[in-house]
Each structure stands twice: as C-alpha cells, then as structure tokens.
Queue: 2 jobs
Job 1
Amino acid sequence: MADDKSKTGKPDRDRINVRENYEVTYWTNRFDVTPEQLTNAVASVGPMVKDVARYLGKSA
C-alpha cells in the first residue's frame, strides 16, 4: 500500500518507505549510500530511521 501523503508527522518521519521513489532519493542522499544499500539495510533491520542509520554506521 502506498504512503498516505495526507497523513504526515513524526511517525512518518521515523520510517523509511523504500517503495516510494522520493523517499529512496532523500534517504540515499542523506546517508550517502546507494539505493541497494538502503534497501538491504531496511530489509535487515526494518524501516525505522534510527535502526537503518545505526546499521549503515551513519547518524540519524
């Protein structure tokens, strides 16, 4: 299911949705990683930004 763009806020900012191209673009630039690295990180630790950042060795 796609993101409901009308429902934004803290819970939405705490998660990475790799099915949305604009989120993949944002987070790959933010963490300086490839889309594949981001997708693998989310698959390994889940969509929470703090967990993905820790997995990638980056700051959230």
Job 2
Amino acid sequence: MYAVTGATGQLGRLVIETLLETIPANRIVAVVRNPAKAHDLTDRGITVREGDYSRPDTLAPALAGVEKILLISSTEVSGRLPQHRAVIDAAGWAGVPFLAYTSMLHADTSPARLAIEHRQTEEIIEASGIPAVILRNGWYTENHLLALPAALEHGAFVGAAKGGRFSSAARKDYAAAAAVVLTSDGHAGRTYELASDHAFTLSELAAEVSQLSGKTVVYNDLSGADYESVLTGAGLPADLAALLADADVAASRGALFDDGGALRLLIGRPTIPMQNLVATALGI
C-alpha cells in the first residue's frame, strides 16, 4: 500500500494521478484531514482515511498496513514541525518501512527562514530510524504566477529577489518525482535537490509575461521590508508575509537556485519550461 498525506491538496492530488498510471487504485491510500472532500478519490477505488496532522490519534490508524508513505509538508508554516513529528511518530508505530518527505531546496544550508522547519523535520526523520528519502523541492513555478492577475493589472511583478535566479519547477514535475521514489527501489538514504532545468530571474518572468500577453509587465525590486509591507497589504498574514519576503531576500543570494539536474534525471524527462506554465496561466 502506498500512502499520500495531504492527498486533497494540489501536490497530493497530482501525486495520486501519477501513481494511478502504474499502481492499481486499491493499492493507494489517501490520507486526508477531511474525508468529505475526497469523495472523488473514493469513487475511483482509492482508499481514503482520515489523518489530521494536528490530531495525532488519527494518524497511526491511517497508516495501518502501509508499505510506503509520502509525507507532504504541512502548509502551516511556523507551526508545522509538531505536525510533521506526529506523522513520523505514527509511521514508526505503524511499522511503515519507507518514508519520503517533501523538504525545501538546500534545506541544510539555506539562509531562508522557511528552511528551518524543513531542516528540523529532516533531523527527526533521521533520528526515527525509518528508511527514508528526502525530496528537497525548489519553488513551484505556479506560486510565482499567483501574482499574475495583479501584475497584468498594474504592469509589474514585485519582490525582493534582485537578480537572484529561481530554479522553480512545475508542481507536476515534483509530483512525478515523488511517484518515482515511491514506486521504485534504491532511494532510501538519499537526498535529492529537485529543481528545474532552466532557472529564471523575476525580470525574465516579467519579460515572458509581457511577450505572451502583449501587455507591458516589468519587475520592480523592493527591499525586504517594503515587499513584506506589500504582502501584508494584499491580505497575507503578517507571519507568512515576513517569511515570503525573507525567502525572496534569500533567493537574491542564490538560495533557490540549483543546476544539478536531479529532477530531470529522476523523472526521466526534461522539466516543464516556465514559458509553458505562463502560457497556460494566460489561457493561451
């Protein structure tokens, strides 16, 4: 049995779709906080089990009989470490023999504050003794494009990354990598730095949007503090805004760049170009 936590999230659903290409539905366990949101998965023959990161008592039963688990990192930044620990502990109690975890690019050395909980989670996994693989995912290209409507309206992306290069990849690429390590052998004990084939700056992203949309869009670089103010002004919680602004500053120092090609090699194909995702987001 292959279990995917956070299975109704955007990455979780893509992992399940990829697994279904080679694994029978009745061999997949979708671990979800709210089973009522997973009827579509049940209808396809996937086993849906309640497993809430914040309710440890639900986790061990959700992992019963599981041979491999993908722990998708919680979205509750600055509070996810105890949630991750609960899943790892439950995997140990349930006797799960293999665990994969979605970490952050260069989590062991990254200056970004977002890397701290990932680094700590990796340490908990190592201490658990469960054979594991660490998938250090770079930024999702789709996350850059969340600001696309505002950029088209105002003619600018904003950030604090200066000329830092982002090796951002499509969520579908990271899902494919997760499916590979779950369904093939030889990954336990390994750490993969997962990044796209072609990095880009935010200025290059803006130029691509301009070319494809026919509208002039530029990149306006701000200080970290000013970018944080923009994010809070857009309605983001203060803690999250601070972390995202800090990540941009870290990117200006190379924290979100990698050219090792591990993602391409793992999934056996080139990564999806940023230009393709921009075109999709624009409806082209």
